[in-house]
C-alpha cells in the first residue's frame, strides 16, 4: 500500500509566556493509505498537537508533513483551508456540532464550500446520515440528540465531502460504552469498506483494539507497539 | 449560507428580539423626528431664492401702510410684488383654523408664487369676483369644500364696522402646489379692506426679483427707503424669513440632530454588544467552521452579514412603522403642520444609518473571528 502521510523530523514547540514547551521532537512517522491508527499516550503528551499538525490546523516548528505527496506545511492559510475541505474529515471529542443547525444542516455545512447545488447538497448529506444510521433524525437539532447520535452526526459531517483522511480526537471520550461501541463500529466499517485512512487519538485501550495499529506517544517521541 | 445566517439569528431568541425591538423603536423615533423637523422647517428648502419678503422691522404681525406695495413695486429690479395680511381665519369654531390671506396685487399672485398652480380660467374668474376665494387642494379635501360653495369665514383679529367678523367667501378655484403646502385660502384685499375699521394696512410684501443675484442690494434699498418712517421694514429672503420663524420655536435642527445622534449611539452600543456576545459564545463554532475550510474572510463576512441583517430588519421595520405612525398623526395635525410626512431624504439617511450601524456593530466581533486561530478556538471549548 502506498504511503499517505509521511512525517519527517517533525518538531513542535509552544511558547507559553517565557517558557518553551517542547511537545514533539524530531518525530518520524509514515501512515499507509487505508490504515487505521490508534494514537495513545499520557495526557499532555502531544497527541492532539500531532493530529492538528497532520490535519493542517497548525504549523510545525520544523520538519515536514507530506500528505498524498504534498508538503502541507508550505501552504498558506487559504490554500490550507481549501486543502482541509477537500482531503480531511475531523471528528471531535465534544462533537462540535453547530447548535443552531439541524443534523442535516450540520452535515451540509462542509458542502457549502463546494460548487454543489442545494439539492445535490441535500442528497449527499442525506446519504451520509443514512450511512451513520440517522436518517430519521435529520431534522433534529443537536440538543435533541443523544451523545452517541451527536457523534454519529459528527462522523457524517466528516465524511460528507468524501475525504481520504479521517482524524478523530478521542471520538468516544465522552460516550458511554454502548454508544462508544457504535461509533467505533462505524469507524471500523468506514476503514474496512470504504478504505478511509483513520487516525484516532484515544485513552481507551478497548477503542485502540479496533485499530490496525497502535502507537504510543511519550516525551515527544513515538513508541511502536505491535498489534 | 442564508440558512446559516437565519439559524444564527434565531439561536438566542429573546436577546435577538430585544435587540431587534430596540433598533425598531429607534427607527420609529427617527422617522417621527425627521417628519416633525420636515413639518417645521421643511419650508426652508422650498423657498425660492429670487423672492424677498418685506415686513415690519419689529414683527411680521405689525402692519405696514398700504402704499408700501406701490413703492416697493417701483424699486428698480423688482419684477412683481403682492401683499398679504394675517387674517386669523376660522370656520365656525376658533379651533378650526382656516389659513386665509387677503391678497393685494392679485394679478401678480402667480408671478410671485409660481408654485401655486391654478386653472387659468378659474384664476380669471376669481379676479372679477369680489367675494371670490382660491383654496388649496388640502383645504378643499379636509373641509369638503367645492367650487361654487359660499363659506362664512370669521376672523379672530379683524372686525367689520358693523361689529361682525364674518366674511362670506365664494370658492372660485382650487390650487395645487407640487412642492408642498396647499392648506391656504386667498381672497381679495378690497373685500377685506372695505368693511374693516382700521383700513389700508397690509401685513407683509412678497416680491420677486428680476435677477436673484441682486437680492442683497435690493433688500437694502427697500429698507433704506422706509428708514426713519413710522413703519420701518426688514427685507430678507423668504428662506431667512421661514428660518427666523422656525428659530422662534427653538433651534429645532440642532435639537433633532442631538436626539438622533444620541439614539444611534445607544443603538450602536446595544447592537454591538449583542453581536459581540453572540460571536463570543460561538468561538468554538467558528473554530469548527474554519477547520472545515471556511476562510477567515468568509467567517468575518458571515458575522458582518448577520449584523447588517439585524440592523436592516429592525431599521426597515422601524421606518415602516414610523411612516405609518406619521401618516396617522399627519391627519390629526393637518391644520397646523400641513407638511407632516417622512421626507424621502430621511429614508436615504435611514438606510445609511442602518449600514453604518451594521458595519460598526459587526466590526469588532468580525475582526476577532478573522483573527481566531483554530487550535485556540478548539482548545477553549
Ligand atoms: N496552543 C498552545 N499553546 C501552548 N501550549 C500548548 C498549546 N497547545 C498545546 N500545548 C501544550 O502542549 C502539550 C501537548 O498538548 P496536547 O493537547 O497535544 O496533549 P494531548 O496529548 O492531546 O493531551 P490530552 O490527552 O489531555 O488531550 C501540553 O503540555 C499542552 O499544554
Ligand atoms: Mg488531546
Please tag this protein with its features.
heterodimer; A: Rossmann fold; four-stranded antiparallel sheet; B: 381 residues; alpha+beta; 2 domains; eleven-stranded mixed sheet; 14 helices; 13 strands; binds adenosine-5'-triphosphate; binds magnesium ion
What is shown here, in short?
Chain A is α/β, with parallel strands linked by helices. Chain A has helices spanning 47-54, 77-87, 103-108, 118-131, 147-159, 177-194, 205-209, and strands at residues 3-16, 19-32, 36-40, 62-67, 70-71, 88-91, 165-169, 197-201, 213-218, 221-225.
Can you tell me about this structure?
The complex is a heterodimer of chains A (227) and B (381). Chain A is built from seven helices and ten strands. The mean pLDDT of chain A is 93. In chain A, a hairpin with a 2-residue loop joins β4 and β5. The longest helix of chain A is centred in the C-terminal third of the chain and has 18 residues. In chain A, α4 crosses α5 and α5 packs parallel to α6. Chain A has a single domain, classed as P-loop containing nucleotide triphosphate hydrolases (Rossmann fold, 3-Layer(aba) Sandwich). Chain A is globular and about 50 Å long. Chain A is 33% helix and 29% strand. In chain A, the strands form two sheets. A six-stranded mixed sheet of chain A has the order 6-7-8-3-9-10. The two termini of chain A are 18 Å apart. With 227 residues, chain A is α/β, with parallel strands linked by helices. The longest helix of chain B is centred in the last third of the chain and has 38 residues. In chain B, 55% of the residues lie in helices and 17% in strands. In chain B, α10 runs parallel beside α13. Chain B has two domains: 173 residues, no CATH class; 174 residues, no CATH class. Chain B is built from 14 helices and 13 strands. The two termini of chain B are 24 Å apart. In chain B, strands 5-4-8-9-7-10-6-3-12-1-13 form an eleven-stranded mixed sheet. Chain B has a two-stranded antiparallel ribbon with strand order 2-11. Chain B is of the alpha+beta class. Magnesium ion binds next to α1 of chain A.
